[in-house]
Amino acid sequence: TCRYVASFPPFHALNAVLLHVFSGVPDACFDTGRRPAAVTRALRAWQAEERREVEEHFNLARRTLTARAFPAEHIEIEFRRRRHGVARDIIREARGDYEFVVASRRGMGPLAGMVIGSVTLKLLQGLSFVPLLITGRKPPGNQVLIGFDGSPGAQRAVRFIGGLVAPYPEMSICLLHVFRGGSDAPPGIRRFLAPPENASQVRENIMQKFDLATSRLAALGVAPERIRTRFVSGAVSRAAEIVKHARAEEIGIIALGRRGVSRVRDFFIGRVTNKVLHLAHDRSVWIVH
User: Fold this and answer.
1) Distance (Å, rounded) from C-alpha 155 to C-alpha 172?
2) Which residues are CB-contacts of 82 (< 8 A; sequence separation ≥ 6)?
3) Residue 136 CB partners (closer than 8 Å, separation 6+)
4) Tens digits of residue pLDDT in 234-287
5) CA distances from 120 to 107, 127, 134, 145 (A)
6) Which domains does the chain possess?
7) Residue 136 φ/ψ region, left for φ over 0, alpha for ψ in the -120 to 50 degree band, beta for the rest
């Protein structure tokens, strides 16, 4: 995560708080729902070893950041004892004066093959008030793909990304809208999607919203030549098309609103955002509330 932060120049203008929530006891002790009744000699030894390892990780993180020109004076280290749970404590801290939270897909747990770790999944569920930037294996690069459906969430993603990258002329933004109907749809499922005659109407509506988004980006300082728009019709899956475009264009960051047009509040994120998060396992997925 620190290598990722250090490799993205727009982050260098911000203060980075490296937060570690220390439970004080092995996770297995929480399986019974009770903390140990007494601090045993073995537990004290475990705590000392864990504290030493955390200090080593903090030192490595600081060196990683400063080695890539991240200002040392912008780095703050916070070591907190667990109060309500690791994810809950991070969410509580995030309610302070933070612009966003950066988390890796998985922590240091032993389980392989998981797309999203347990703490990051809980952050995804609970961080509904600030953007959550989930890092991927691929470096962020100098392009950002915004999955754009014209919804309030997509517009917030436009404002967030524009404000972050505007001072950096090497950064470009692509607004992508995916329409599942139209004459380009596969014949076998075409009858289940929106009819081809609707495509022109949808395209016209989205083009107007593209213009509005481009104007907002320009107002934030993003020059028009740094902005691309693309309308794709005939896709079977909007999420798959977004990820396909990111890979084809070698884009490392996919930004999405927390919810799309449907805005179903029974779910903590929308269907497209959830699918992109699982399909784009090698890319960063930034979820903007």
Assistant:
1) 17
2) 21, 22, 23, 24, 89
3) 105, 252, 280, 281, 282, 283, 284, 285
4) 778 899 999 999 999 999 999 999 864 444 443 346 788 889 998 998 899 999
5) 8, 10, 8, 22
6) 2-34+48-135 (3.40.50.620), 143-288 (3.40.50.620)
7) beta
